[in-house]
Amino acid sequence: MIALDWWVVGLYMAGTLAVGIWLARRASGGMVDFFVSGRSLPWWLAGTSMAATTFSVDTPLYVTGLVARRGIAGNWEWWAFALSHLLLIYLFARLWRRAEVVTDAELTEIRYGGRPAAVLRGSRAFLFAVPINCIAIGYVMLAMRKVIEALDVFEAVPAWLPGDERLWIVVALSIFVMVYAGISGLWGVVATDFFQFGLAMLGALLVAGYAIGDIGGLVALKEGVIAAGREDALRFVPRPGSPDLPMGTFLAYLGIQWWAWRRSDGGGEFVQRMSACRTERDAERAAWLFNILHYVVRAWPWILAALAALVLFPDLEDPEMGYPLLMLRYLPAGVLGIVVASFVAAFMSTVSTQINWGASYLVNDLYSRFVNPDASQRKLVMLGRLASVVIVAAGGVAAFVANDIGTVFRFMIAIGTGPGAVLILRWFWPRVNAWAELASMLAGFAIALLSYLPLWGGMGFGLRLTVTAVGAAAVWMPVMWLTPPESNETLEGFYRRVRPGGPGWSRFRAQTGLEPDAPLRDDLARTFFAALLLFGAMFALGGALLLEPVTAGISAVVAAIGLAGLARYRTREVRP
Q1: How far is it, in rounded angstroms, from Cα 575 to Cα 515?
Q2: pLDDT digits (tens, 9 = 90+) for 54-90
Q3: Is residue 21 included in any domain, yes or no?
Q4: Is residue 478 part of a domain?
């Protein structure tokens, strides 16, 4: 990188900090202002922020390594989550907004009652805010560390600082993110997310475009992959017996991963964004926009760049480094600065979200709930900023424990597997109680950790998901039936507030005289057609880019069927 590139990066960071300072006043009114933007976000800003949060500096490197090891079909490791994200649109977005919570952990004391609900809320808040959230921040920092290694900018670190120079660069970036996230709260995070997503997409397109242009275009790219003996890498689904992606693992992605994971009903920062939307309809639109941006728009620039790296750097010891090496080889001065700024943008987008979201658990669900319920709003905002410091420090430690982004990503999936079925059922089946959810969360976490012990002999990922999901179910189902159901008063209060659909709540509909805004069967039908539209559009675009006209044509027809089905099942207006 030359001076021009550093000027581009510096101007971007200065602009980001200026936005944070400008929005600081909006975050100072209280906890709702700081953590959910006073529930005033427009849908397009919330949806783009959801997409920007999941587009981090680690994702292009992760996809590059995934394609190198398992081909395009390896992306089902994250494509499978589209099934739960589609449920988010029509089953959960409106329910989360109607609940008016600050965090998803807060819902536990709305859905459940008594001491079990309080124990569940505290346990969930701590588990997600500290170990899980800090590991997530850690592997984002790990990816940034790899980019820094590729750029070879260690000479920028003063010689008098002790220890690993990579640590100091990542720490400096993290402190910068912490400052602007702490000043401006969620408003600052989502406002900068909007620009960060655009810049990150531009960076991905530039890397893919320059690399493919040098190879000779899409035809030459495809021929190069085949010539390298990696024709299977072009498959959208694995063939039986493929050594790259075992069929058992692929089936675990589709059959278990998406519903067994800890965010099967949304969860985490997605709930934060939907709770911050102006209306329930806006929450639904935000979820739709996220799905389009996440799966249709941005997947293919990453995949094309990954295929280019597979052709150009076939023998890399660490294939995740293929992406930053493409940047260094092909991008001219100034353009390299833009792409590095896009990496900084992606890094800041995700880490700022994790900081704000993790702090919301510590303040809203631990301190305000259990330590000092009468704390002033000003004090809670101040504590939110202090909690940000703790989270960043813990994330920085995690960044220097691991070396492979894909491995850490799969570890995060594994330790989050188990409670997903309970999280879905609690909205539609009154018999689910707090003890069942607590048991599913702790059992899944413990079983996943145990599966990494040497005595298991290197268990495959598909088998690990199956064992964790089945083992957690074997714990939480007996616990649910052996413990008392929630009281009629608690369940009626939950129904009055959220009004979920389904036959399980018929008694409470009769008691309250309140109907859900749409029948559950209609929401499920809309979700089915949305799946046809989303996957059809994604594979139609991929088929066209990879010069597979049959795949593109069939996928386009599937997408058209999905669109026609959605037109038939138009979402009803929300009843008062």
Answers
A1: 8
A2: 877 778 888 998 999 899 999 999 999 999 999 999 9
A3: yes
A4: no
